[in-house]
Amino acid sequence: MPQTHRVVVVGDALIDEMRDPESLREFPGGAALNVAVGLAVLGVPTTLIAMVGGDAAGAVLRDFLASHDVTLVATPGPFGSSRATSDRTDGEPTYAFNEAAKKRRIEFGPAERAALDAARLVVVSCFPFDDTAQTDAFIAAVSEPEQRLVIDPNPRAGMLADADLFVANFERMAARSLLTKVGDEDAELLYRSTLDDLRRRLLAAGTQTVLATAGRAGASVGTRDGLLVSEPITSLPGAVVDTMGAGDATLASTVQTMLTRGVPTDAAGWQSLLADAMLIAAATCRSEGALLRVPTA
After folding, report:
1. Residue 288's CB: how many other CB atoms inside 10 A?
2. C-alpha to C-alpha distance for 265 and 209, rounded to whole angstroms
3. Strand (E) positions, 53-120?
4. How many CA atoms lie less than 13 Å away from 64 in the CB half-sphere?
5. What gap in Å lies between CA 246 and CA 202, rounded to an integer?
6. What's the CA gap between 263 and 273, in Å, rounded?
7. How many other CB atoms are there within 10 angstroms of residue 61's CB atom?
């Protein structure tokens, strides 16, 4: 794919630490990293703008991104690299984030602005929208957001300092976006509402297009002019192993389709986009970890 189709992803990169009674495993992760690597797997030239520390975890993240041909523009991490721990030693999983993750920030200096200016599409995922100064800096750095900006709020309860402020700043950007993705967990955590209600709220507030993902119930697209299409998750052979990367895979597939085929203009186009995304998500769920998987023939 030509470099003129480059996508820049902005957001989190971290180490996912999985603990259970038998083992301790670590994977490079973070929603933005997952989307960036997923796009690269799908053949899209991709740059990730994220905070990465100069520590051993940061070296792992850099090596992983390089192995997938993702260009990294790294904001230094004053508290090191972010880490998320999923602990299943007592049965039900608990989640915790280190200080770096809770205090993550992204600088928008000359290198970041140059990357954003050169991108055909800009995707933001798991951004600290509860930091107004960071949100304002990001808004100022992205030109023509209505034609280029794709947003996934992807909040994490353990990283959320001010839910009301997060909602206000997220909705401010969503109203100026090309497409905004939300999931059923976002609706519950941020709004205590249903996914359908959240989709209607965002469209009423001016968002052009909302991609809504509902786990095993599939996904839907709603547009400001009243179009609504839905697609169930694709049925594939084999057991579902890990649902962690399904939403990120759905977003990566959606962005790749918009990049290569253009933004759909009718129900048939959105239906085709969703069918491809649900196939990618289903394949991703059949392997451990959040790395996007392309289904085999």
Report:
1. 12
2. 11
3. 71-76, 82-87, 94-97
4. 22
5. 22
6. 9
7. 26
* Length of the chain measured in residues: 297
Q: Are strands 121-125 and 7-11 parallel, antiparallel or unpaired?
A: parallel
Say how far apart CA 93 and CA 28 lie, in whole Å: 19
236 CB-side CA count, 13 A:
22
Q: Of 106, 63, 66, which Cα lies nearest the Cα of 82?
A: 106
pLDDT values of the chain reduced to their tens digit, one per residue, 297 residues: 767 789 999 999 999 888 777 888 888 999 999 999 999 999 999 999 999 999 999 999 999 999 999 999 999 999 999 999 887 766 556 778 999 999 999 999 999 999 999 999 999 999 999 999 999 999 999 999 999 999 999 999 889 999 999 999 999 999 999 999 999 999 999 999 999 999 999 999 999 999 999 988 999 999 999 999 999 988 888 777 666 778 999 999 999 999 999 999 999 999 999 999 999 998 988 777 778 888 876
Phi (first) and psi of residue 17, to 5 degrees: -105, 120
18, amino acid identity = M
| Distance of alpha carbon 102 from alpha carbon 159, whole angstroms | 5
Residue whose tokens read 């480059």: 6
Beta strands in the chain (DSSP E): 7-11, 14-20, 23-29, 46-52, 71-76, 82-87, 94-97, 121-125, 149-152, 179-183, 209-213, 219-223, 228-231
